[in-house]
Each structure stands twice: as structure tokens, then as C-alpha cells.
Write a structure and sequence with these properties.
Helix content: 40-55%
Strand content: 15-25%
Number of helices: 24
Low-confidence stretches: 1-39
Number of domains: 5
Shape: globular
Structural class: alpha+beta
Number of strands: 22
Radius of gyration: 35 Å
């Protein structure tokens, strides 16, 4: 259905914005590794949300439905791994919100009735999604007749997939509507009083300029303060919230990296040498390169100075068809053949009209409009006037479409090729990622000799024999070291590099190890000091270009970390606390009855300044977050010296030099601003509060 295609073209971005459709994915793991026992409901449970069990087949069905919607929106036929991950994550977030909020909506009596949905889809109050889908790009008006015709054709002629897509749009409209109702209730329950607004105005209006001295914590060595066990334990008890931890696993691993050998290098060179004669005699250089080279043919002309010296000397002293090489460039051997030689301009002046296919419903419509404009211009209509009227490139449209002069590599390739290779004043239709361009080169710069090279490259890569040799080394290590003790000792004895990684259950990758999700899953199925095994029972994980052998060395459960686990962190915090007290006493002794300048001299430091601070501030320029210092200023009179202030980055002695009162008296505007700020923050916090109030057991890591 053409109308549905238009909907997909127009709806993709808007639907994505409204429902947060940031889709993503990952290849499914071996779910049924344990055989038929996995078919028991408890073992197929992907999550339990607020007491509701979510079975894997049901969740996977939602994931696949969302993937189909994504494909329809983007015109994709396949999803890459990253997109699958996002698709699953979006499906999960939608599921959690649906279950968490459905009970809340029910308790509040919030619903979206059939009449409301009718009104939003085809009534007087069309939803923004419907307005976007059926707005006439020429008039800017919504065509209600088109809505009704589409719904009728959908009922009579649509495929099951097309109907599912439309139902999905309706569900998103309903979900957005009920969320809006809930958000409005939350907003209406919030209010900033005039007294609060006045307090905020006063804080904004009063600006202070200060002088201060600071003794940073690093000015005192750790050895200068002592801490006792009782101090550490007391601090730990009072600040346990600082030591909350997520569940994690720590692994140790070694890698057997597969790298090309000298033999692989020599074999690659021989392959390039052997193919040189055939390459020299071939006529279709572009096709030949695209079939045989690891790097595709580049349709670019280059000046002598744009090439390396050796290739430039060859290219500008030889004729079309000559071949140079093999040459080694990085990790590849290449042959360079002269494909064409032309005298081309070094710069071009051009103008264009950019047409946005999304606004017209499809690329076909954009191409048709470009063709119509081309005909008008060829029949005498002003290019500049049409550019002002139709071009989406507002910057150049104001100049009649003129882009000025530009050199090579300043524009996207299809546009550049048409501009540089086209005839002056001739019109060309060019399609790029920005849309459809009606292009006209207007002037060309000085002609220079340029060459187009066909480069045939072959990367130096490990051979099958190399892979087998490295695998044999990994296999030998595993066969000789089947427990953690021997694993650890062998690493030391053989002087291998041991690496560490701390990973979460839902992490997708160990940093530095490609495609390492299977290793993470294995770590969560193993016991501490176990050698990890993959789904096939092998202790060798093939991850990217490496064979990996790993062991689980520790596990951390969710909750408050034990005192012993975080003792080093506690000790640092207590030392900082004690340094603060010691530095405060040092400042107090130095400042006793003295001026700020005299205290600075006694402390061998300098007086610093900070201007324009308000009582809504939380930081001091060039220092950082210091709310305690800002709070102290409120109690100081001009030229009054503070007592020592223990802050985040050191201990301070502060003096207010001058105060400036602002003249903002618009209490209502400040009240509205505070209401908007609080309302925006509350919408997120309201959902988070509801989510945190229910129990969520997330078992996705067992399946993906």
C-alpha cells in the first residue's frame, strides 16, 4: 500500500521520538543448552516484575514484534547485533513500564476510551502522530479525508503485517495519551509558593565578590594524619550508603592472539605478484578491483601533490593502463594502475536546490519534483527564485541556491562528482544522504592534470594454518592446567600476561575482547576458582582474533560491601576528614586576629578572588563544587572574615569584598520557571519512585 509506505517514511522519526524507539540487538545465546529440563516454566522465566512472571517465549515475541516495526520504519531486512541489543532493551523498558504503571493507572482511574482513540485517530482532535502522517506537505494542512480513505483501505486490502503496524501506532498513541494524563496529574500536584519564588529571586539577585585562601588536602601528606580501627569502623557504619555495590564477577584471563606470521606476509605478497599480469591486461578496472581487492574502487581524481612521492612519480610519468607495485602500505600489499587521466578544475562554483524526501513521502516524489523544477528552469524560470521557494538548505536558499566556491573533499562524493565532472550551467539530479539535489555547476577553476587510480589491495591476514597453530598453543595450555592453581602457576612460570576484568551480569563485552558476551555468561554460571567453559564445554573461547582462557576469581553480591572489602576507601575518606580538621586548626591559628592577607602570608599561600557568585551557585570558578563555602557567604557581612570552612577540595578562609543587588522583581516569572523545573524533574522521579517500589527480578542474562 502506497499510503502505508508514506506513513513509514514519515512516521519513523516522530514515533521514535515519542516512544523512545532507540532500538538495538544481540545474537541469541544457546537457550536450550541444558536440554528438555529448560522447558519447565521456572527455568524459562526471563523476569519477575511486581509478582508477575515473564516467560522467555512471551518476551521474545515482543522483541521480534518490535524488530519487525523497526524494519518497516527503516526499510531494513536484517538487524545487526547492536540493533538487536537496543531492540531487546527497548522491549524490556516498555514491558517494565507497562507492568509497573498499569496498576497505578488503574488505582487512579486513568484510561483511554474507544471514543478518545477515535477522536485522536479520525476525529476533531487528531494526535500529533496522525497529524504528521497525513499533513499535506504543500499546504501544511491535515487531510482528514485521506485519513478516512486510508483506514478504509487498511480494513479491506492490507496485509497482516500492515495491519499489525497500524495497530502498533494506535497502541503508541494510547500509551502516550495515558502517560500524558498521569504526567498532568503529577504536575497539578506540584506548586511553588510565592515565598519560595521570592527566596529564589533574592538568591539570584544578590551577587557577591569574595576573596579567599585555600589549603588543599594534598598540601598535607597522608602520613601526617593517623587513623584508628575504631574511627574507620565508626565512619563505615555512618556512611554505609556510600558503599552500596552491584552484583559483579571478577575474572582473570590470558589471550592467545592470532597474528599474521612472516609466512602469511610472504604468501600475501606472492598472491599480489601473481595477479599483477592479469590486472594489467583487464579492461574493466572498477569491476575487477571491487571483486578482487580488500578495498573498493574509489572514483576520485587526484593531483600530484595529493599522492605519496613514489606513487606520484609513477602516476604522472606513465600512461593509462600502466601498473606499479607491489607496494606495502600498512598491513596490505597493493598494485596501483592508472585508470584515467584528465584535466580537471581544482575548484568549482555551484548552486543547488535540496529536496527532502520525508516531506514529500518518498524519494520517488522528491525525484519527480526535481524533474519538474529542472523543466521549469530549462524553460526560463529563475533558478534563484525556485531555490528560495523549494530548497531545504536554508543557508544557500537565501543566496538563490549558491554554494560559492568549493574544492574536492568538501562535499559528499555523489554531489562532488557531479559538480566537478559536469558541464557548466547544465542541470544534474543527484541523490545523497541529505536528500535529492538539483545541481548546477556555474563556474570552474583552473584546469590541472589529475589521475584516477585503480588500487588493488590484499590485507596481510592470518592463514588457516596460523589459526590452527595458535589454537594448538591454547589447547596445550588448557590440557596441562585444568584447575585454577595450575592455571595461575603456569601463567607465572611461562611469563604470560595475566589480565583482569570486573563484569556485570548484563554487560555485553569485556573491554578489549570482541564478541565476549559468552565469556560473561560463563562467569555467572561458574563457581569461584573455576576455569570457565563455553556452551560446547571447551575452556577455550574464540573471541575476535584471540583465543581466551579464563578463570573466575571472585564474586560480589548486590548490597552493602563488607568493611574489609572497602577498607582502603574508608581509610582514604577518614584521612581526608582528619586532614580537614587539622588544616582548619592550622588556618585558625594563622588567622587569629589577622587580616586575610596576613593569614595567607603566614600560611605561605596566596589570596584568591571569585566574583559574581550567587546563593544559587554551588561551585567556585577554577576550584569546583563547594556548597559549604557558598552557604557560609550568606552569614557574612562585608569585610567580615569567616571561620575555617571544610570543603570538598580543601579548607577555606573567606571574606566578602562587595555585594551587588540585582533588579529582577518579576515574581510571577520566577514562580513559573521554578514550577516548570520542578515539574520536569518530577515526571522522571515519579516513574522512578513507582519502579523502585516494586520488585524486579531480571533474568535476561541467562537467555541473551
Amino acid at each position: 500500500m502506497a499510503t502505508l509506505q508514506k506513513i513509514r517514511n514519515r512516521a519513523g522519526l516522530l514515533v521514535a521520538i515519542i516512544i523512545g524507539l532507540a532500538l538495538v540487538a544481540f545474537i541469541l545465546g544457546d537457550i536450550f543448552r541444558s536440554g528438555s529440563s529448560l522447558l519447565r516454566p521456572q527455568q524459562l522465566e526471563v523476569a519477575e516484575i511486581n509478582g508477575e512472571s515473564i516467560q522467555y517465549p512471551d518476551f521474545q515475541r515482543q522483541v521480534e514484534e518490535m524488530a519487525e516495526i523497526y524494519k518497516m520504519n527503516t526499510g531494513s531486512t536484517q538487524l545487526d547485533e547492536n540493533t538487536w541489543v537496543q531492540v531487546r532493551e527497548q522491549a524490556w523498558q516498555n514491558l517494565v513500564r507497562q507492568i509497573v504503571m498499569s496498576e497505578v493507572y488503574e488505582e487512579l482511574g486513568l484510561t483511554v476510551t474507544a471514543d478518545e482513540l477515535f477522536d485522536m485517530v479520525q476525529g476533531k482532535n487528531l494526535h500529533p502522530i496522525i497529524q504528521q502522517l497525513f499533513r499535506n506537505p504543500q499546504t501544511g494542512q491535515v487531510d482528514k479525508t485521506a485519513v478516512l480513505q486510508f483506514l478504509k483501505s487498511l480494513e479491506l486490502n492490507a496485509t497482516a503485517q500492515q495491519k499489525a503496524y497500524w495497530l502498533y501506532i494506535e497502541e503508541q498513541i494510547k500509551e502516550e495519551r495515558i502517560q500524558t494524563k498521569y504526567n498532568n496529574l503529577v504536575r497539578q500536584g506540584l506548586y511553588v509558593t510565592s515565598a519560595e519564588a521570592q527566596k529564589s529571586l533574592n538568591a539570584k539577585n544578590k551577587q557577591v565578590n569574595i576573596q579567599y585562601i585555600r589549603l588543599p588536602y594534598i598540601s598535607m601528606s597522608d602520613s601526617a594524619v593517623s587513623v584508628s580501627d575504631s574511627e574507620l569502623k565508626d565512619y563505615y557504619k555512618k556512611h554505609q550508603d556510600n558503599y552500596k555495590q552491584d552484583e559483579s564477577r571478577t575474572i582473570e584471563y590470558i589471550t592467545f592472539d592470532v597474528k599474521a606470521t612472516e609466512t602469511d606476509d610472504a604468501n600475501t605478497l606472492k598472491w599480489v605478484e601473481d595477479i599483477k599480469a592479469e590486472f594489467a591486461n583487464i579492461a574493466e578496472n572498477q569491476q575487477y578491483v571491487n571483486i578482487n581487492s580488500d578495498v573498493p574502487f574509489e572514483n576520485v581524481y587526484q593531483k600530484k601533490e595529493e599522492l605519496s612521492d613514489d606513487i606520484a612519480d609513477f602516476a604522472f610519468s606513465s600512461k593509462v593502463g600502466d601498473v606499479y607495485g607491489p607496494i606495502k602500505e600498512g598491513n596490505a600489499y597493493s598494485l596501483v594502475k592508472i585508470d584515467d587521466i584528465k584535466d580537471l578544475p581544482d575548484s568549482v562554483q555551484a548552486r543547488h536546490i535540496l529536496i527532502n524526501p520525508e516531506k514529500l513521502g518518498s524519494y520517488e516524489a522528491a525525484l519527480a519534483l526535481a524533474d519538474s523544477l529542472k523543466g521549469l528552469i530549462e524553460n526560463g524560470t529563475s533558478f534563484a527564485k525556485l531555490a528560495e521557494q523549494y530548497s531545504e538548505d536554508t543557508g544557500s536558499a537565501r543566496e538563490g541556491g549558491d554554494l560559492g566556491w568549493f574544492r574536492k573533499n568538501q562535499m559528499v562524493k555523489p554531489f562532488e562528482e557531479a559538480a566537478f565532472n559536469g558541464e557548466v550551467n547544465k542541470l544534474y539530479t543527484v541523490t545523497t544522504q541529505f536528500g535529492v539535489h538539483l545541481l548546477q555547476p556555474t563556474r570552474k577553476g583552473k584546469l590541472t592534470k589529475q589521475v584516477r587510480l585503480a588500487k588493488l589491495s590484499r590485507n596481510i591476514e592470518p592463514s588457516t594454518q596460523t589459526y590452527q597453530s595458535v589454537y594448538a598453543l591454547a589447547s596445550k595450555f588448557v590440557s596441562e592446567n585444568q584447575d585454577y592453581k595450575s592455571f595461575d602457576e603456569a601463567i607465572a612460570n611461562e611469563k604470560l600476561t595475566k589480565r583482569f576484568a570486573t563484569i556485570g551480569e548484563n554487560d555485553r563485552e569485556v573491554r578489549g575482547l570482541a564478541d565476549s558476551r559468552p565469556l560473561i555468561r560463563s562467569a555467572y554460571e561458574a563457581d569461584v576458582k573455576d576455569i570457565l567453559h563455553n556452551n560446547e564445554g571447551s575452556a577455550i573461547f574464540e573471541l575476535g582474533d584471540s583465543f581466551v582462557v579464563a578463570a573466575l576469581v571472585s564474586e560480589t553480591e548486590e548490597g552493602i560491601a563488607s568493611f574489609e572489602e572497602v577498607r582502603p576507601r574508608v581509610e582514604l575518606a577518614v584521612k581526608k576528614q582528619n586532614k580537614g580538621k587539622a588544616l582548619a586548626q592550622k588556618i585558625k591559628d594563622a588567622a587569629n586576629g589577622k587580616s586575610l592577607e596576613a593569614a595567607a602570608e603566614a600560611l605561605n599561600t596566596e589570596v584568591q578572588t571569585a566574583n559574581g557568585l550567587t546563593f544559587n551557585s554551588t561551585s567556585i570558578p577554577a576550584v569546583g563544587m563547594e556548597p559549604a563555602v557558598i552557604g557560609t557567604l550568606a552569614s557574612l557581612n562585608q569585610d567580615e572574615l569567616s571561620t575555617p570552612v571544610i570543603g570538598n577540595n580543601g579548607v577555606y578562609l573567606v571574606k566578602v569584598v562587595s555585594t551587588t543587588e540585582g533588579n529582577d522583581t518579576d515574581l510571577m516569572a520566577e514562580q513559573m520557571r521554578l514550577n516548570q523545573t520542578m515539574g520536569s524533574r518530577a515526571l522522571y522521579q515519579a516513574y522512578e519512585a513507582q519502579r523502585n517500589a516494586v520488585e524486579i527480578e531480571d533474568n535476561r542474562a541467562k537467555f541473551y
